[in-house]
Amino acid sequence: MYLKLNSLGYSARPTLDNYSCKEIAQVLQLNLSTVCRWVKRGWLEATRRSARHYQIRRWHLQQFFENPPQSIKKRIDALDVEAINYLLGKKA
């Protein structure tokens, strides 16, 4: 089971403190390539889970949203606050 989840880019851990790029893109209603680009440029810290999949921890996501790169700050500010809070585990 663990290997299957890992190969699909999902966490096998019981706590939801890490996400795949796909999960983040779906929640924020962004293209998957956008989130992957953030990781590849080093803006969003992630762990490589396989050749094509990354795992992003919640606290790295929080750091990214608190201090986004200047070039995409307006785009980040335009994202749905409720979706961001959902990913960060914050109550509304």
From TrEMBL:
InterPro entries: DNA-bd_dom_put_sf, HTH_17, SinI_DNA-bd. Residues 19-67 form the Helix-turn-helix domain. The keyword DNA-binding applies. One of its GO terms (molecular function) is DNA binding. Keywords: DNA-binding. NCBIfam families: excise. This is Excisionase family DNA-binding protein.
